[in-house]
Structures
1.
Amino acid sequence: MNKSFYITTPIYYVNDKPHIGHAYTTILADVIARFYRQLGYDTFFLTGLDEHGQKVQEAAINRKIEPQDHCDEMAPRFIDLWNKLHISNDDFIRTTEQRHKKVVQDFLQLVFDKGDIYKDEYTGLYSVSEERFITEKEAESDNFRDIKELKEINYFFKMSKFQAELVEYIEKNKNFIQPIHRRNEILGFLKQPLADLCISRPKKRLNWGIELPFDTDYVTYVWFDALINYVTATGYGKDDNLYNKWWPANYHLIGKDILTTHAVYWPTMLLSAGITLPKTIFAHGWWLSESAKMSKSIGNVVNPLDLIEKYGVDPVRYYLMREMVLGQDANFTMESFIKRYNSDLANDFGNLLNRVSTLIKKNYEGIMPEQGSKMPEDEEVVESANQLVNNVDKKVKQMKINESIEEIMQFVRSINKYMEDQKPWALVKDNKSSAGRILYIAGESIRIAAVLLSPVMPNRCAEVLYVFNSGRSTNWGELKSGSKLNDHKTLFPRIQ
Ligand code: MSP
């Protein structure tokens, strides 16, 4: 049986217009999922939408339509974008689906029956924009809009009961929260006593949510609903085989803005329900634009659709993956996008393919020459290709995606250098078989680089493999001599 690999993105608020930040998390998950599939893992990649809560209810009321209709109209904006970005998700979950509502209610009942949910009166400051009660200190910061004082009877989850257990778990499991500075942040946060979590909303205030199974006057708090999507999609409570195959998730990929909900709320909920904790919660940084977080309210968002239309999907995917060091913030600028595109894709990768295929067409009737017996400089190339395959495998498993891409590009550059040193274009007049050997070595190197870059740029790399009529093995020597190259356009035309 193959090893299994389960990766998730946050489920996005259905009200948001998807921007490059949302696209980033989803592309990142897609790239990782494709890498693991390529490595032979059975892979389950989940994304979806978070559809309940106050903001959706208000938006629907403003439009004088039912919240469900509102969600059904909004959902295609995400689905279309994911299609356009060639996202290979295996499932798309919406929290308004019946399968999810059932799991949330079963989960709530289970935690209630364990005695971990109680009813209490609560007075506090409530942030409508964040849909949660906030502390007075938080209210003083400018991070919250629409703050109201609320006095309400509500249900509470005994989060405090699991504080010590959670701290111990995080301390024992070094990879549970990554990168390490986020782990430290959470351990720091958990030094203060943890409050219990208000997990209900009275229907008279908000009814767009999942009803509590033990009190029909209330719906559940959006986060208690949303987080559970990660187990719903595995078949929890419905199909034990699938559930056992996928759960616990290998990665919950999230942005740093939702670390506390994932690294504190979610694990304590799971501890109460007696469900194994996910293996890793990985928080990436933000895409900034002019040094501010991209967000709808600031109005500095980059629209991924405009970019794709202008430059193609793969270059956008490449840029996002290459430019962000996982865990840190990165700045999105058109200038750096164009620079990256021209130097890495047009110059290094695209040109190499052009040079090799043009020489083969001109001198070998377009037929891939024989590899022949290798010279020491060829052996060096083979060795560095093999090493590259191992390094990329290792780096991806350590979530060093940008480094793995950089290594592939270094290899590509070294092949450009190899071509310059060996000069097959000059050699071909007197020594056709040596020149042929060099072109084979360069061609096979391009093929392997294309296989390794396929998770990042699935389309353009498939084109490269099509040019060479070749498969996706990363073993040296798979490239077929004697087969006719297919014609191709310039892979990455330079941006002026
Ligand atoms: N619905 C919640 C998540 C529930 S998960 C159980 C939510 N949704 S969201 O629509 O606001 O999307 C949040 C995610 O989008 C972030 O965690 C992050 O992954 C991504 N990003 C949104 N803006 C971003 C940037 N400017 N930069 C990078 N990623 C950002 O929170």
2.
Amino acid sequence: MYNSIVKGIGHYVPEKIVTNDDLAKIMDTSDEWITERTGIKERRYFDPKKDTVQSMGAEASRIALDRAGLKPEDVDMIVFATLSPHYYFPGSGVLMQRELGIPAGVPSLDVRNACSGFMYSLSVADQFIKTGMYKTVLVVGSEIHSSGLDKTTRGRNVAVIFGDGAGAAVLQRSEEKGRGILSTHLHADGNFAEELCIKQPSSANEVWMNHDIVDHPDSRPYMNGNLVFKHAVVRFLEVIGEALKANQMTSEDINLLIPHQANLRISEFVRMKLKLAEGMVFNNIMKYGNTTAASIPIALSEAWEQGKIKEGDTICLAAFGSGFTWASALIKW
Ligand code: ACO
């Protein structure tokens, strides 16, 4: 059995910075409310003339491949996570394949697990490498939320939280024991599907899309914020505990925890419960908001760039989101 190691990591965020004060000009909100409730100070919005989920994913991938010393031709499989795809179908992974020049014939899989999307993708990639099927798998999370948000006072509880961006990781086969991805754990509970969702357009309609549907609030994201918060803190702790137990470790063995950047208050709660010192949990939600599937690879890439991840470190990744879905991974870097 082989191991997967993270050979390279990269991220891309659009140039346009949107501050809390900018949002307060278009909806009834304030920097104080957003900062206190979420920790977010600003987020990035895409440039419709330049950015697509596949172009942003491609840019993050180019950096990750370059850092891995690899080329697009070396990729054996693509796993692409997004909840904001370019087309309804086909998935955005094939569009990124074309854009990056990854050869025709290389498989591309799209993952739709929202905030847990990157973690599910990482786990799928890891399994394909561990079984010996593929040697190099490109795992991408890329999101454009800004075009789908209700940026009026009606949608403010959701709109202030989300931002755009992309991150990528190159996983590669290794025969070194005890290094790379030590474990992944995935979970879902569909009983809460409608607590964090966009319901429309839907194949369940007699006509998939019409003018009434476009104007209906169901075509904008809905979030039961209080319920999401309550479940998130429980599931984060549970799934991190599961990862540690599976590897006979305790929270003292973690060098850095990178949680999905859902909300700074959720991160802080988890940090305190695990009794981790402040610098041991990486947060960048202040700068980017919640970028769902892109948040963990963006954070991983920034943490690595800042020298916060060194060879031999034990890194814990954990996510919770729509579905509900939740997941963790332990990596020996
Ligand atoms: N600006 C100003 N006021 C607002 C805003 C806003 N952007 N949004 C809501 N409010 C108002 C509400 O209308 C409400 O007013 P009222 O008391 O007059 O009715 C008041 O603020 C309090 O609203 P709540 O929803 O109860 O606010 P809460 O303290 O719960 O904070 C929040 C909302 C931040 C969404 C919180 O529930 C939360 O953190 N939830 C976790 C969900 C989360 O982090 N999701 C991230 C995405 S999902 C994921 O990645 C897992």
